[in-house]
Every structure is written in C-alpha cells, then in structure tokens.
Design a protein that fits this description.
The complex is a heterodimer of chains A (161) and B (872).
Chain A (H helix, E strand, L loop, with lengths): L1 E8 L4 E6 L5 H15 L9 E4 L2 E8 L2 E7 L5 H19 L4 H6 L1 H11 E2 L2 E2 L4 H32 L2
Antiparallel strand pairs in A: 1-2, 1-5, 3-4, 4-5, 6-7
Chain B lengths: L9 H10 L3 H20 L6 H13 L8 H9 L3 H14 L11 H8 L4 H14 L2 H14 L5 H17 L4 H11 L5 H17 L1 H24 L7 E2 L2 E2 L1 H15 L3 H6 L1 H10 L5 H16 L4 H15 L4 H17 L1 H5 L2 H8 L4 H14 L5 H14 L2 H18 L3 H15 L5 H13 L4 H14 L4 H20 L14 H13 L5 H17 L4 H10 L6 H16 L1 H7 L8 H25 L6 H8 L14 H13 L12 H5 L2 H6 L18 H9 L10 H16 L18 E5 L3 E9 L6 E10 L5 E9 L4 E5 L14 E10 L9 E9 L2 E9 L7
Antiparallel strand pairs in B: 1-2, 3-4, 4-5, 5-8, 6-9, 7-8, 9-10
Helix pairs in contact in B: 1-2, 2-3, 3-5, 4-5, 5-7, 6-7, 6-8, 7-9, 8-9, 9-11, 10-11, 10-12, 11-12, 11-13, 12-13, 13-16, 15-17, 16-17, 16-18, 17-18, 18-21, 20-21, 21-23, 22-23, 22-24, 23-24, 24-26, 25-27, 25-33, 26-27, 27-28, 27-29, 28-29, 29-30, 29-31, 30-31, 31-32, 38-39
The chains are: A alpha+beta (161), B alpha+beta (872).
C-alpha cells in the first residue's frame, strides 16, 4: 500500500501531496521536511529507495521534480517505480510534454489524474489510455457546465438590458 | 458583485506568490488572499466558492493553515453540478483527514452521490470515500459500495473495489460481505477491474482465514489460468510496458498466488508450472521485467517447498546481486534476507559479494547488506566477518557507524568463541567508535572482564595503550578508567603477562595521569567523571605513593556544581585523609559479577520494572527495590535501573555504600563472589525474607514506656524547632501505649498529629519516628528520627541510611551528631522528609540501615519499617 505521494521540486518546494494514511497537519510538514532532506541530497547513481521510519520511500527524479511514494517494507519497490513512471507518462500525455510549471498552475489537474490512477493507496488502472479518456470525459463535463453558465448569464444580461 | 470577494483568479494568485522574492513577501500575499477568502466565506459567496477553494488548496500545499475552508468543501459537495462537486471532493481529500469531526457531516452527501445517476459523480464519491473515509463512514456506506461492485460500468466497479479495501481495513468485520462479489470480479476480463479485484481479494485474505480458504478452493485454478493468459498474451499496446503486457497485473496475480499458496501444498503445486515459466521467460533487461521477477521470487520463497523452483529463485537473486543497477542489488539483498531462512547455504555462497555491499557508497544498500550479513554470521565465519566489519568501521561514514557498531557488538556478544577474542574485538570497537556504543554493551563488557581473571592484566594494559591514542571515545574512557581503578597495580607491575604481549613500562603516575585527563576532559559527562572519582579512590590505596596527588585531584571536584560529583569528592576526600586504616579494605577489588545472573537480569529488567509496582502494593516493599535506591541516591541516571545490583551501574552503588558504611567481615574476601554480588544493596533494600536482625526489632510495646521517658528528657539539647513536635508526639505515644497520661496531646497550630512509632529496636539501639504534616500538603510527611543508645558504651561514626520504594521520595537531613553516648543519656535526631506520591492509596514503608563503631568495631543493623501509621 502506498501511504503517501509527494512531488517535491529540487529546491524543496512541495508541488503535490496526497495522503492515503492519516497524518496530522503537523506530521505532514515534518514528513515532508525529513524526506526532502534525505532525498534531495542523494547522489544521482544511488538506488531509488530510502528507508525511513520502518517504511520505504521510492523516489524518482524527472527533470527538476522528485516523485516520491512511501510504501510498506514488504511491498515491491520496483513495481512502485513503474507506478511512478506510469503516472508521469499519463501527465506527459495530458499536458503534452509536461513541465514543472504545468503542475504548478494546474495542480488540481494533476490531482484529478492521480485520483484516476490511485485510490486508497492502491493502483486503480494499468491502462494510460483509459485514464486519459476518463479525465477528458470529466473535463468536458466541466467545460459544458461552464458554457451553459456563460450562456445563461448572457441571456440574463440581455433580458435585463 | 460582492466588493470583498477576491477579484484575482487562481492563476494570478499563483503568479503573485511565485513572484515573491522573500518569505515575508509571500506571507503578505497569502495573508491578503486568506483575508478575502475568509470574507467570502462569511458572506456565503456562491459565485467564487470553487475558485476560492482552489486557491485554498494551493495555499494549503505551501503549508499555511486553511481550516476555515473546510466547510466550503462540504458546501461545494452539496451543490448539484459536477464541476462544483469535483473541486469540492478534491478539497475534502486535501484539506481534511479522517480524524476531523467535520468529515462526518459529509456522510449524507456521499450517500446521495453514490446513488447519483451521473456515473462520474459516483466515481468522485467513491474516490473520496476510498481515500479518507473513517471507520464510522465505512460502516454507514459499506452497503452502497458493495452494490457498486456490480455496477454496469467497469470504471465504477474498479473504484468500488479499491474503496472496499479501505472499508475492510477500517472495519475488518465487514470483510465477509465482500467475499462473493470479489469472486465474480476475479473472473472479469477488464484489466482495471481484475487488478483492483485481486487487490481486494488479497486484503480479504489478510483479514479472514475463511475468505482465504474460500478463494484458495474456488479461485486458484482460475487465477493460474489468468496469469498464463497474461504471460502468453500477444502485444497489446494499451497495456504494454517495455515489451511486457501489463506488468502490474502480473505482479498482482503473483502476489495473490503467493497468499493462496502459502501453507497449502495443493495450491502451491497447481501454480508450479506457471511460476517456472515466469521465472525463466521474463526479460530481465528492463525494470518492469525485474519487478515481475522480484515478485515471482518472493512468491516461490513463500509457497510450499518445491525445491526445483527455489534453486531457480536463488539463481535469479544471484544474478540480481551482480547487477550494476543499484536498485536491483538493493532488492536482491532485501530478498536474500527472506531466503536465508529457506536455504542458508545458498545465500552463504554470496557472502563476499554481500560484504562488498556493506561498503557501498549508497546508504540504503549498506543498511540492507549489513542486516543480511548479520543473519549470515555463524560460529565458523564469525572471526573473519567480524574482522572485515571492524576494519570497515575505521573508514565508514559517521552516520553509518551507529548501525554498524550495534551489529558488530551484537555479533561479538552472541558468537564469541573465547573471552580474549571478545575482549579484543570489543576494545577495537570502543577504540574506533566508542561514542556509538550503547550502555548495555560496555556494561556487559565489564562483566566479562571481571570474569576473565587471567586476562585482567592484559586488558588493563591494552586499554591503557588504547586510551593514549583515542581519548575522545567516551565509552572507551569509561571502561579504561574502570579497569585502571580496579587493576591499576597489574598495569604498573606487568602482572599476568600473556605470551603475546610486549612488556610496557607504566609508572603509577602515568596511570593516575590517564584518570586525571579523563576527569578533566571537556567532553566527559557525569557518569564518566563519577567513575573517575571512584577509580581515583581505588588507586589511592593501590598506589600509596600517589596518595597525595590523588587527594589533590579528588579535592578539585569539591566545588563541582553537580551534586553527585561534589558529594563523591567530599566523601572520598575524607576517606583518603581520615580513614587510612580502613581504606584498603574499602576499596577492595570488585567482587566478580556472575555472568549468568547478569544476562538474566538484563533480559528480565524490563519485566521486573513492570512487576515492581504491583509488588509494592502487595507487601509494601518492592521486591526489586534496586530502582528506588537508584532514585534515592540519584546515581547513574542513564543506567537501566533494575539491572543495577549486578551491572556495573551497581558497582558505583556498591562502592558508594561500602564507603558510606564500614566494611563488615563477610565482605573482605573476594572468594564469596556470589554472596557479595548481591550483598549490601540487596540486603539493605529488599529481597525476600527480612534479615535476621529484624526479628529482634519487632516493637516491644511493653518495654517502651520507660525508655521513652528517658529519651524525651534530653530534649533541651535539640534544636528548638524540633523540640515541640517531639515533645508533643512522644507524649501522645505514651498516651497511646500506656494509657496513663490522660492529658490530651497538645495539638500543633498547623497540620495533623500522628502517634509516634518505634520504628526499630534491637538490644542495643532504638529508633523512634515522630511525624508531622504541614497543612495544605498532605503528601509530605516530616519525620523526626530519634536514636537512643540502650547499651552503656558510646557509639561513634554513627550513620543512618534509609531507602524507600519508588512511589515515595525521601529527603534526609544531616544528623544532629555522629556520636551516640551510652545509657540513653543523649540521643541523635535526624529529620527526614517523605513525599508520598500515592498518598491515600499506599502506606509508607522504609528499609533502614544503621552503622556505627562500638569499641572500634564496626556494627551494622538493618531493618524494615512497615508499621507506619496509615494515611501518611
């Protein structure tokens, strides 16, 4: 089980956090501080796993961003690396060659996609295409609602003119 | 539009925050945004609610408090439209967690949304429920989720399956409800549903033995077939990862087969072929393939023994271990740990490679490898491996030394073939990384050293040489100082030379130098300095020529701000100066500590600590009352308290007590090791039946009255402060005992009066306790102890000591005198203050010990006082 997902920039800025196990606000910031201290300082050739408080944190660096997932001791670390890559590829397809700025300004989209990949700390979908399709369908629902709202306000505006 | 609602868009706010150059600027921007969001919240602004929530989420991510936005999430979730719900649920998952009360309010909305006609809204609700639901919500909404496991759209079914995992985790009782739906999920073709169904199945098997049995019978074959199909499936672009069709499904299937095959030969047998196929056919040049192999090896290791497969698995691990990729080596080490219990020999073959991994530059790999090596050490390879590890200790990173030292010490303690090897290795470790060595390790080392009588000289010389080179390793200094104190004469005179040693020339002054350096070293802590003082005291007797110099060093601590050091310094100084005649007897070598008792104690110390409290309540005196004594004397705060009587921590205690009292005959010989090991302390404090002196100490009520009058008469010699209370209470006692004084005891102006008691009486001595309490602090009892000499001889060097169990606190004030004239002419008084932390629940008890000199002969009397008035 994945206990939490963290996206941390090389400067230690948090770009996304998702907690599947209960951590209080205080613990969360402590965890983030501890882990960014451990992970950001590791050299490039070292393995992608750090042991931390009896858990394992699997991390992978993509450009300026570190994707970190915390798992149990007995979980398959190599698979979690694949899950991270899976998520990154979906982001990449969605944003079209994703960069850190995309994730900053559209952080909510990154969350929506993550919610289609993981629930309760477990993998939900192994097909990138399906995830992309589901996110797109929901985005279009939002767009439709916006247009409708816009047209209604137009009608109101015209009626009250 | 509301004039207070924020006009900035989310994007603009993010820009503004990113443009901030300092943290203060950022705080200012956020303060402004938060203020306008708060205003919008209190105005119940509808238009910008979802924009505000999005902003809050961003602010939350930066680590600022956003609790005021929690209710906004609920409002958005309750809104009818999909966009509002989407952002509302996201906010809910981000800003809240399962422990917040607010979450309960959302249960109803969730229930409605789980039944919504729009499947995407159902999906949102399932996702939120799966990520943050609490036990109560799980119970309330489980039926809805169960129903959704059969929903027409597979994307809802898979979400419902994962949601069920959370529900089962929160409320394991619900597991059985999910067994049947899961069985049908496992037959699906849709990968997402299969994937999540398998995970739910694993979760159910973890929680319920019956579910495990059920799935084992009904589904094993089907799952084996599914795995076969996936393994042999042709290229499927949708699921392909580096040439493998859906490795995630592979891994989950292998995991479930592991659960089903574990402990069941038939099930294991049915998956034999496919496991062999996966283990041999999977490509291992990409991470995805290795992940599958790794999972497959784990499954082979945990299902029932199929030896052919195990060989295959170990070979895969061997290949992993020699891989250049650190990730692969890491998981290989990880898995070899599990393989050790299955096939130790096979893992031993890779020992050299693993040992190399201990020295890897990667901390994660080092740690894994060290754990593995620890499992691989046995009698035959312990010497070689320990040598390697200790050699590495010299060059390892500072932050790895702690782990490494702990493991080496543990190996050496567990597997040492002989004592000289043990001592050699331990001293090497202390020399290299003494600061990382735990207390119990060097305590154990000292026990071993005392037991190896033929190695005393060798050890002390080795330590002397080591400390010349490495004076900043605290534990090395402690052990060295202790040994020099005990065996200093062997150091100077080269006694007990072993063949392999070169003789060294050490003068008495050199030995004292070492201790002096240690006591003055800036990094030495209280324990070390206290040990130094004891060593100096011992050396003052061993090296008479240095006596004056030692006295000077000891005196320097007289002004120490640390009470412990000050006290030792003053006491030792007076021993060196005034008690030349008894000094050598006082500072005899420590009796040999029994190793078996020590290790037993060490193991039992935790238990004993737990038991002692309960015993207190039974007989009033703690059976393992070593702890109270440690409290009482406030010694070695970092020692394990209950191990004190036998561990080296106890050495100080015993030393100290030996000093405080005069040595009594039975102690002078070191041959009575066993008795001495448990001597003074235990006698004083606790253990089983009361000492024989006690038998005569039962208060003899009838003989009291007369003596009592005598003891009261010389009151004028006492300080005026104590006089009235003694007067008052002793009258009260006569009243109580004899009943012939009808006048009521004069009550004091504050506090309650308690009848005095005869706390202790022997043929030669009587001790009375008079009690008083300050009003307002019922826990605190002031006791005036009154000693009366019943014989006709004068007692000199009169010392009274007391010990109490842990729930009491004892404060002893100085006695009025240390000479007690005969015939009850005069008495010594001493004030005690006892604080009872269990006031009203437990009565007071006390162990006492009185020592004095009678015609220059030492006399020791001991007893237990349990006749305290109740409610003290």
């Amino acid at each position: 089980m994945i206990h939490f997902v963290l996206l941390i920039s090389r400067q230690g800025k948090v770009r996304l956090t998702k907690w599947y196990s209960p951590y209080s606000q205080k613990e969360r910031s402590k965890v983030i501080r501890e882990l960014s201290g451990m992970i950001l300082t590791r050299g490039p050739k070292l393995c992608n796993f750090v042991e931390w408080r009896g858990f394992k944190v699997v991390y992978k660096r993509y450009a300026s961003l570190y994707f970190c997932m915390c798992i149990n001791q007995e979980d398959n670390e190599l698979e979690v690396l694949e899950i991270i890559h899976h998520y990154v590829e979906i982001l990449d397809r969605y944003f079209g060659s994703v960069c850190e700025l995309d994730l900053i300004f559209n952080f909510h989209k990154a969350y929506y996609i993550l919610d289609e990949v993981l629930i309760a700390g477990e993998l939900q979908e192994s097909s990138k295409k399906t995830v992309a399709r589901l996110v797109a369908a929901q985005d279009s629902l939002v767009e439709a609602a916006k247009e409708e709202a816009a047209s209604i306000s137009n009608i109101i505006a015209q009626a009250t003119k | 539009m509301n004039p207070f609602s924020s006009g900035t868009r989310l994007r603009d706010m993010i820009r503004a925050i990113r443009a901030c150059k300092t943290a203060a600027e950022e705080r200012a921007v956020i303060r402004k945004e938060c203020a306008s969001i708060r205003a919008a919240v209190s105005d119940n602004d509808n238009d910008y609610r979802h924009r505000n929530l999005a902003k809050l989420m961003f602010i939350h991510m930066l680590g600022y408090p956003t609790h005021f936005g929690q209710m906004e999430c609920l409002k958005l979730i309750a809104a009818p439209g999909f966009p509002e719900k989407r952002i509302g649920y996201l906010g809910l998952m981000l800003l809240l967690d399962e422990r917040q009360e607010v979450l309960m309010l959302v249960t109803n909305s969730l229930k409605q949304d789980l039944n919504h006609a729009n499947q995407y809204i159902v999906g949102l609700a399932l996702c939120a429920l799966g990520n943050i639901c609490s036990a109560e919500m799980a119970r309330d909404l489980a039926p809805e989720v169960e129903r959704l496991l059969q929903f027409r759209d597979p994307n809802i079914r898979k979400k419902a399956a994962l949601c069920s995992i959370r529900i089962v985790k929160k409320v394991p009782d619900l597991a059985e409800n999910f067994v049947n739906p899961v069985a049908s999920l496992l037959k699906e073709k849709h990968h997402g549903v299969l994937l999540t169904g398998i995970q739910l199945c694993i979760e159910l098997c973890n929680h319920s033995e019956e579910a495990l049995e059920y799935f084992r019978k009904k589904c094993t074959e089907g799952l084996v077939k599914v795995l076969k199909d996936v393994v042999n499936s042709s290229y499927a672009p949708e699921y392909d990862i580096s040439g493998i069709a859906d490795p995630f499904l592979h891994i989950r299937l292998l995991h479930l087969l592991r659960v089903l095959g574990h402990g069941d030969a038939d099930a294991s047998d049915s998956m034999n072929d496919i496991l062999a196929q996966v283990a041999t056919k999977t490509e291992s040049n990409k991470n995805a393939g290795n992940a599958i192999l790794y999972e497959c090896v784990e499954t082979i290791m945990s299902i029932e023994d199929i030896s052919g497969l195990r060989v295959l698995a170990i070979n895969i691990l061997g290949r992993f271990l020699s891989n250049r990729d650190n990730n692969i080596r890491y998981v290989a080490l990880n898995m070899l740990m599990k393989a050790v219990s299955v096939d130790d020999q096979a893992v031993q073959r890779h020992r050299t490679t693993i040992l190399e991994c201990v020295k890897d530059s990667d901390a994660s790999i080092r740690k894994r490898a060290l754990e593995l090596i620890y499992l691989l050490v046995n009698e035959s390879n312990v010497k070689a491996l320990t040598k390697e590890l200790i050699d590495y200790l010299q060059v390892s990173d500072q932050d790895f030394k702690g782990d490494l030292t702990a493991k080496i010490c543990s190996i050496v303690e567990k597997l040492s073939p002989d004592k000289i090897w043990y001592i050699d290795q331990m001293l090497k470790v202390l020399f290299e990384a003494g600061n990382h060595v735990k207390d119990e390790v060097w305590h154990a080392l000292i026990v071993v050293i005392t037991n190896a009588s033929n190695l005393h000289g060798y050890t002390v010389r080795l330590l002397y040489k080591a400390i010349q080179k490495s004076a900043d390793q605290e534990t090395l200094v402690r052990v060295a100082v202790w040994c020099i104190g005990e065996y200093g004469d062997m150091l100077v005179n080269n006694i007990g030379m072993l063949n392999l040693e070169d003789p060294i020339t050490v003068t008495e002054n050199d030995a004292v130098d070492v201790v002096e350096t240690a006591i003055k070293h800036h990094s030495s802590d209280l324990t070390t300095r206290a040990m130094c003082l004891i060593a100096l005291l011992k050396l003052s007797s061993r090296f008479p020529s240095c006596s004056q110099r030692i006295k000077d060093i000891v005196t320097q601590s007289k002004g120490s701000l640390l009470l412990e050091l000050q006290q030792r310094s003053i006491e030792f100084d007076s021993i060196i100066e005034k008690h030349q005649n008894i000094r050598s007897a006082l500072v005899e070598r420590m009796p040999v500590l029994d190793e078996a008792t020590f290790s037993g104690r060490k193991a039992g110390s935790i238990l004993a600590a737990a038991v002692s409290t309960s015993l207190n309540s039974v007989n009033g005196v703690s059976t393992s009352a070593a702890a109270p004594l440690v409290d009482l004397l406030d010694l070695g705060a970092d020692e394990p308290a209950t191990a004190a009587p036998t561990s080296s921590g106890g050495n100080f205690l015993q030393d100290l007590l030996d000093v405080g009292t005069s040595p009594f005959p039975s102690q002078s010989g070191t041959t009575q090791a066993q008795k001495n090991g448990t001597d003074v302390l235990l006698d004083l404090l606790s253990i089983g039946s009361p000492p024989p002196e006690n038998s005569s100490s039962a208060p003899d009520i009838l003989s009291l009255s007369q003596d009592n009058k005598i003891s009261v008469s010389p009151l004028d010699s006492l300080s005026s402060a104590t006089a009235p209370s003694v007067q008052a209470s002793s009258t009260a006692m006569m009243d109580l005992l004899d009943g012939f004084d009808p006048s009521p005891p004069p009550t004091k102006d504050n506090g309650t009066a308690y009848p005095p008691i005869v706390a202790f009486e022997s043929s030669s001595l009587r001790l009375m306790f008079n009690f008083s309490k300050q009003s307002g602090s019922p826990q605190v009892t002031e006791i005036v102890a009154n000693f009366t000499n019943k014989s006709s001889n004068v007692y000199t060097n009169f010392i009274f000591q007391a010990a109490v169990p842990k729930f009491l606190q004892l404060h002893l004030e100085p006695a009025s005198s240390n000479t007690l004239p005969g015939n009850g002419n005069e008495s010594i008084t001493q004030k005690l203050r006892v604080t009872n932390s269990q006031h009203g629940k437990k009565s007071m008890v006390m162990r006492i010990r009185i020592s004095y000199k009678l015609n220059n002969k030492d006399v020791l009397e001991e007893g237990q006082i349990s006749n305290f008035p109740r409610d003290l």
